[in-house]
Design goal:
By secondary structure, this protein is an alpha+beta fold. It is 10% helix and 24% strand. The radius of gyration is 11 Å and the shape is globular. It starts with 32 loop residues before the first strand and ends with a helix.
């Protein structure tokens, strides 16, 4: 998996790209959104390809 702070789309393949939590497509665009939270003492992250998928997400 790619570091979520990296510049997606630059030398990132579909296999390496994070997947959208809603549509499961590889995220290779600059509309990438990430939600982070703490769960059981660990940092968790959910990736989204755009704001629309982010709004559809129901954790």
């Amino acid at each position: 998996m790619v570091d979520p702070t990296s510049d997606l789309g630059e030398d990132v393949t579909e296999e390496e790209a994070p997947r959208c939590e809603v549509c499961e497509e590889p995220i290779l665009t600059d509309t990438h959104r990430v939600v982070t939270w703490i769960e059981d003492g660990s940092v968790r992250a959910a990736h989204f390809c755009d704001d629309s998928c982010r709004r559809e997400w129901d954790p």
